[in-house]
Amino acid sequence: MAFDDAYDALTDHEDDARWAYGTGFSDPLAGVPGDLPDGVDRADLAAYCLMLGDDALILSHRLQQWVTRAPELEDELALANIGLDLLGQARLLLTRAGAAEGRGRDEDELAMHRPPAEFRNVRLAERADDDFAHLVARLCAFSVWRLELLQRLTGSADPMLAAIAAKGVKEVTYHRDYAAQWVVRLGDGTELSHRRMAAAVDALTPLLGELFQPHPVETRLAAAGIAVDPAGLRAAFDDVWAYVLATATLTAPGVAPAVSPAAVLPASSSPAGAPSAASGGRDGAHTPGLVEILDEMQALARSVPGGAW
Amino acid sequence: MTVTFDEAIARDQRIEPADEMPEGYRKTMIRQIAQHAHSEIIGMQPEGDWITRAPTLHRKAILLAKVQDEAGHGLYLYSAAETLGADRGDLTRRLIEGRQKYSSIFNYPTLSFADVGVIGWLVDGAAICNQVPLCRSSYGPYARAMIRICKEESFHQRQGYELLMTMMRGTPEQRAMVQDAVDRWWWPSLMMFGPPDAESPNTAQSMAWKIKRHTNDELRQRFVDMSVPQAAALGVTLPDPELRWNEARGHHDFGQPDWAELKRVITGGGPMNEERIRRRREADSDGAWVREAAAAHAAKGMS
Amino acid sequence: MTSHEWPLFEVFVRAKRGLNHVHVGSLRAADHEMALHHARDLYTRRNEGVSIWVVRSDAVVASDPAAKESFFEPSGDKVYRHPTHYTIPDSVPHI
Fold it and tell me: How far is CA B129 from CA A13, B185, C38, in A?
């Protein structure tokens, strides 16, 4: 083996059939037209992409916080994969939001330079995990919901959203399986794990109602064939969720109403013209959990004006 | 005719798991592979701390994938150690009880995002220098794991260098961050090759068994020679006043790291030793109920 | 403590259609489904596979290295099993 250059040395093994080393990476969005569909309201489309993008970005952040803290090394790999998938979805959706908005904001401008009240994620995504049971319970509920959503979004009249959704369906199918298996293992594991799993399900239940509460932007875009009306996901979600919980020997608590009395931050600005009556994450009303996330995520990007990374 | 261990080594053949081997070889191999695995796992922490704070989403994805690779490399290596009869749970306990070592480099703190780039460039670069010869290590499962690790690691070094090149094109503050990180990581990187040959007690036996293929000083020299032009292309200064080209030797002369510091850091006196082990111990103990529950659930399925 | 440790699984990956599954390493998992998930996350991060097998390591039956001579060497002199054993004139086509 050559030793003068480490990279030359590595190529000695290029044909080594003992190891399958991956090739053939492809861009899932190659060839998808980026033009906006005719007649679509740009502000609505931008707001909708932010909603789905922020869901993924914020939950990915919660998963990133588990790195080096997972219960077993194999789960480090799994959680990082899921975090990467969601981060990838977020980047595509924020990029699409920026393009629809037409003000020159890219994914980083949108991720790093919006205040909490301009984030559009559901509050389920921002909650901190008390333990691994909370992590998998939330990931499971989120993935069951998002999979139903993305499956329907593959038929969107916006070809870019449809392509992003088709890519996401494959990823989230795996996330759902991974999380559901863990909900079952912990629910039907030891007495202690059952108790913790039940507590985790109870803790996230108040946040589920919001997932099915249509925002006016969603309603308008759903009518135009671009978005998915989340109200229509409820029955499918309930079926899967109840099945997972039953398999885990847990009982499904009733899903709470959309507006939870939990402490929320006021939604100061609503560029998409959202009403202030029903305030949830989609309107920019968040829990302190989001502020904590953004403090961590945005500080460095904001501290070096004009920085190149 | 059956090939004995000594004949296999002499003929440059690989030793495979079920083969007869001297107990000393087995123990040395387990210790070396385990320390290597521990280094990958502990090595997730210094950079992992920057994932949630990465300044762009692109860098965030790269860093998350990189730290994930390190978990993967740790697992490839534990897997190789288990072929020798070692048990991963036991090796983990040795790590968190401080009975087995890991690379001293990870006991230094990451103070700025430039550290992420410099770790990729210098620390992973030094690791590649150490590891490429290990792809020919006499123990088959270790050599095969190293091939895969080296291939994956080459992305790690390149992403680090590319990040630094980008930052050097940024603001004056960013250029200062890069130089500061280089100043802090250069000497610890040189220490990654271990003590000077004259003070390395295990080198002779490891070379005889073809576990190791080059001495510490040979590898260190190679690393310095590789790094000097890279530093120049980047526009940073390596913090060694004695560093200069020696025409007669055909190599760079360079100063000696502070070996007393290496000793201090290896024996637990580094700035981050306690924190690194504490985090690993916490993850292990916090996860115990989860692992137990999964085992209990699996046992129900089998009954 | 050891009783709660997960068993070891061996992992085999088919890199692409047309190739055999190849042993790539091992991992720890509590059950078979988890082993498949872990194998996917650990050994196919870079697009390395289209199919995975996992099998518990303690279910693998291996030949005895000490029996290597009686096991494998008797086939070493059966040179007539190889096509190059037979001499055919160059002038004879297609054989």
Answer: 16, 16, 30
ipTM attached to this prediction: 0.94
Beta-carbon contacts below 8 Å between A and B: 182
* Domain CATH code at residue C57: 3.10.20.520
Q: Which two tokens stand for residue B82?
A: 């288990």
- Give residue-wise pLDDT tens across range A167-209: 999 999 999 999 999 999 999 999 999 999 999 999 999 999 9
Total residues found in chain C within this entry: 95
Question: Chain C partners of A19 at a C-beta cutoff of 8 Å?
Answer: 22, 24
Provide CATH code, domain A39-258+282-303. Answer: 1.20.1260.10
Over the stretch A10-42, which tens digit does the pLDDT of each residue have? 444 444 433 444 556 778 788 888 888 888 999
> Which alpha helices (H) appear in chain A, and where do they start and end?
6-11, 42-64, 73-101, 107-112, 132-153, 159-187, 191-204, 216-223, 234-247, 288-303
The Cβ of residue A180 has, within 10 Å, a number of other Cβ atoms equal to 23
pTM score of the predicted model: 0.91
List CB contacts (< 8 A) between C27 and chain A: 74
Question: Can you tell me which residue has the tokens 């006016």?
Answer: A216
> Per the domain annotation, does C75 fall within a domain?
yes
Return the CATH architecture of domain B5-301: Up-down Bundle (1.20)
